[in-house]
C-alpha cells in the first residue's frame, strides 16, 4: 500500500493525519565540492562512527560514484533533514592524538601518509589530506598539527546535497500517524473496521530486517 500510494489515499479520504513522507535508509549524494574531491574513491569502505544531533551509528561507510552509502550512512539518513550536516569519525576506536604522539615520542621518521595508512585506506588518505602535511615525518609534527589532524579525522563534517531518493531507498519515512490507530489492533480510532499496517504507517525500523518484521507482525495483528 505504501509503495503505490493507495493507502495514503484511503487515509486522506477518511480525514486521517498523514505525516510527510520521504525516502529512508538511503545513500547520500555529495555536494559539488565533495563530489569533485571524493568521487574517485568509489568502492572504498571504512569503519566509522556517523552521527548527527539525533543518532549515532558505528558501522561501515562506502564511497560511491555519487556520494556515500554503506550501513552507517543508510541508518543516519533516516534522521537527516535537507541542509543539515553529518559528522563522521573515521577512527572511532583509536584516538588519533594518542596514536600520533606515541609515534612521535618513539622518534618515528615515517611520513604521516605512511603512518595513517596503518589505519585508513591509502587512496583515501591521499585524497583527504593536503600533500604537504602528508610528506612530513611524524617525528617533525608540531603539537598543533597533530591536533588539527586528529580533529579532521574524528570530526569530518559532510553536508550532503540530497539523498538518492526512492530509487535506492529501502523504506519510506512518514505515513499514517500512529495517533490515529489503536496500538493493540491497528484499527483507526475514527472509522471502525478500517485498519492500516506495514509501511503505510509512520513506523520505521533500523537496517537489518526490522521493517520486514514490522510488516509481518502488524499484518498478523489484523
TrEMBL record:
Start and end residues of each RsdA/BaiN/AoA(So)-like Rossmann fold-like domain: 1-221
Coiled coil: none
Entry-linked Pfam families: HI0933_like, HI0933_like_1st
Residue ranges of domain RsdA/BaiN/AoA(So)-like insert in the record: 22-171
Record-linked SUPFAM superfamilies: FAD/NAD(P)-binding domain, HI0933 insert domain-like
NCBIfam families the UniProt entry points to: aminoacetone oxidase family FAD-binding enzyme
Listed name of the protein: Flavo, family protein
Amino acid at each position: 500500500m505504501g509503495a503505490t500510494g493507495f493507502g495514503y489515499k484511503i487515509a486522506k479520504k477518511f480525514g486521517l493525519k498523514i505525516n510527510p513522507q520521504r525516502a529512508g535508509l538511503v545513500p547520500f549524494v555529495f555536494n559539488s565540492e565533495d563530489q569533485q574531491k571524493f568521487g574517485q574513491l568509489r568502492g572504498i569502505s571504512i569503519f566509522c562512527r556517523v552521527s548527527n544531533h539525533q543518532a549515532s551509528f558505528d558501522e561501515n561507510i562506502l564511497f560511491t560514484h555519487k556520494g556515500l552509502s554503506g550501513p552507517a550512512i543508510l541508518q543516519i539518513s533516516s534522521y537527516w533533514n535537507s541542509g543539515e550536516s553529518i559528522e563522521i569519525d573515521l577512527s572511532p576506536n583509536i584516538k588519533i592524538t594518542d596514536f600520533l604522539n606515541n609515534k612521535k615520542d618513539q622518534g618515528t621518521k615515517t611520513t604521516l601518509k605512511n603512518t595513517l595508512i596503518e589505519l585508513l585506506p591509502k587512496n583515501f588518505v591521499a585524497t583527504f589530506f593536503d600533500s604537504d602535511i602528508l610528506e612530513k615525518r611524524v617525528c617533525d609534527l608540531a603539537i598543533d598539527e597533530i591536533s588539527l589532524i586528529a580533529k579532521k579525522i574524528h570530526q569530518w563534517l559532510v553536508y550532503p546535497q540530497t539523498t538518492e531518493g526512492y530509487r535506492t531507498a529501502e523504506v519510506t519515512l512518514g505515513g499514517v500517524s500512529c495517533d490515529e490507530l489503536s496500538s493493540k489492533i491497528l484499527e483507526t480510532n475514527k472509522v471502525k473496521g478500517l485498519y492500516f499496517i506495514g509501511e503505510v504507517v509512520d513506523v520505521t525500523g533500523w537496517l537489518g530486517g526490522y521493517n520486514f518484521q514490522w510488516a509481518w507482525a502488524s499484518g498478523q495483528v489484523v
